[in-house]
Specification:
Structural class of chain A: alpha/beta
Strand order of the largest sheet of chain A: 2-1-3-4-5-11
Number of strands of chain A: 12
Radius of gyration of chain A: 27 Å
Largest interface: A-B, 63 and 63 residues
Helix content of chain A: 40-55%
Strand content of chain A: 15-25%
CATH class of the largest domain in chain A: Alpha Beta
Distance between the termini of chain A: 87 Å
Largest sheet of chain A: 6 strands, parallel
Oligomer: homodimer
CATH architecture of the largest domain in chain A: 3-Layer(aba) Sandwich
Number of domains of chain A: 3
CATH topology of the largest domain in chain A: Rossmann fold
Number of helices of chain A: 14
Shape of chain A: elongated
Chain lengths: 342, 342
Amino acid sequence: MAETARHSESRYGNRPTMKDVAARAGVGLKTVSRVVNSEPGVTPDTERRVQEAIEALGFRRNDSARVLRKGRTASIGLVLEDLADPFYGPLSRAVEEVARAHGALLINGSSAEDPEREQELVLALCARRVDGLIVIPAGDDHRYLEPEMKAGIATVFVDRPAGRVDADMVLSDSFGGARAGVAHLVAHGHRRIGFIGDQPRIHTATERLRGYHAALADAGIEVEDSWVSLGPTDPARVRAAAEAMLAGPEPVTALFAGNNRVTVTAVRVLAECERRIALVGFDDIELADLLGITVISQDAAAVGRTAAEHLFRRLDGAAHAPARVELPTRLIPRGSGELPPA
Amino acid sequence: MAETARHSESRYGNRPTMKDVAARAGVGLKTVSRVVNSEPGVTPDTERRVQEAIEALGFRRNDSARVLRKGRTASIGLVLEDLADPFYGPLSRAVEEVARAHGALLINGSSAEDPEREQELVLALCARRVDGLIVIPAGDDHRYLEPEMKAGIATVFVDRPAGRVDADMVLSDSFGGARAGVAHLVAHGHRRIGFIGDQPRIHTATERLRGYHAALADAGIEVEDSWVSLGPTDPARVRAAAEAMLAGPEPVTALFAGNNRVTVTAVRVLAECERRIALVGFDDIELADLLGITVISQDAAAVGRTAAEHLFRRLDGAAHAPARVELPTRLIPRGSGELPPA
DNA sequence: TAGGCCCTGGACAACGTTGTCAAGAGAATG
DNA sequence: CATTCTCTTGACAACGTTGTCCAGGGCCTA
């Protein structure tokens, strides 16, 4: 009776505990634990009684307590930039599938491309003692993760390399992809090609720009300053950049878009333009086939899957040196990249 | 010394605990706890010593233990259908923002439209004692949640109503949206309008179908069986359904697509078709403006935000009867819905 | 029938944290 | 100077679970 009263004031509403189940089933605490965990050494009859008590009380094991005792949370953290970005949805989903196959839950958070917020999120996840972390870096200094990694939290960086820290990474071949895309435009006769990309702080942005320069250098073309624009990828900035490149006496005849957000805005701008400007975008977009947009496609799901599999291999004890995996990209010609110079 | 040895074998790598910090700083355990939680009653000098010890050891509070003691996990669970679906990315992100504003983390999982998997996920989240749940139901019987809700886990159902359980819900006006969309087609002269939707098990699918029927009834049009097709929304099934409606002696002159996946496939099929078939789709799609697709738009972010705010109001103690919020939809004409009958 | 063994079940401590409470040191008051 | 009061500090229990270890009972064997 006193027992009941105590529980009705308990913090979890009035969740029954194993102790309550044990009392109701007339067995010891540990026996309930055994039944709940399907451990051997319980007679069918006892097990039945315990199960009945569990049903009757609506008992559900408290995983917090379990975690405290066992030291494994069976959860991993995923810190990405923005879940609303169509590139990260499939990535996150792929990570989740792998986690599920390993019986783990996924906690995720968006950094909104803010290094401070990234750190805050990562540390919160560490405080929960996630078993592992997959991080799409916003910042470029991850030394704050060192104590955590030393303490055994497996970490894989994705899409962009980690800063000042030695860890596993899974990247797409941004340099090679951009180089191939720009070379494609060159092959179709373009000599004046614009590049609109993300902020230089972001590794993929500079890698793609490097690929752009490499392709033009390969073709013996000298890049003019006005052809390149790096910065935030909100529609307003991208629109302004694109319009600037298309205006003036010697406008570009083709554009290379540094990521999916840039591509979307570029398509809008080009649709309003009377001249036919060629376009190749980094990242595939839904319905791009119908719009005839030529893209460099990276397989977001494959990136996520690879990273997660890496992580779980670490969690299962793999102790080799940090690896750096680079996944290939693919050029998908659909028309916009094959337009001749206007 | 023995202390050190014990810890070096500990399960969390060798994470220092408050006890270790206390020993190093030469203070009591509780004093460390006070510093970590910024509780009052610690002299600046003591605080400094403790902070130093925390830094030196790389201490990070173990939230599992904290949760066990305090009873609040400061995390909420989100169970949706598929994170890779462009409708759910923004929804999830909106939920995350609200959670973040309340200092909570978001754990999410995909049910893949499988009721069993939904239940499995929800119960796993309950075992972790998330403070609250936001569920996009896959199944139609949620009585399994009753003990959990009674035990104090706040729950909000989103996008589709809960089955056999009294709880808060945030829905979009599927019926009204579909009715308006189909009426739009009727207003543009169509009398033979096809409907391709999701499986009838899914509430939004039947609501939208109901809207379709209502609009046609309003116009005094009798629906033919062959105009309606419900089922999985994978491209193959949708394509087959669309092609069937467009073939035969009396084909439909317009299509209403029951969700974004259907719309995407429908656009592809119609693009291959020589006749101009009108199309209105439920859910907006990126770049739909460029493709000129008329849609019924529901604001995924608003749905997520509303649900999350509802949830936290519950967590902050709101105890009114379960509410049912229905958010309006918006018809966005872009061309495809305004085509006259071929 | 005695001895030993196996099998089931339970008592107890421990995980790392926070709430309660009481003790001790100074400061303020009479 | 004695007393009370305040402020800082630490000892201890508790949260709900699991691992360790031991006890008791039934069964088999000699």
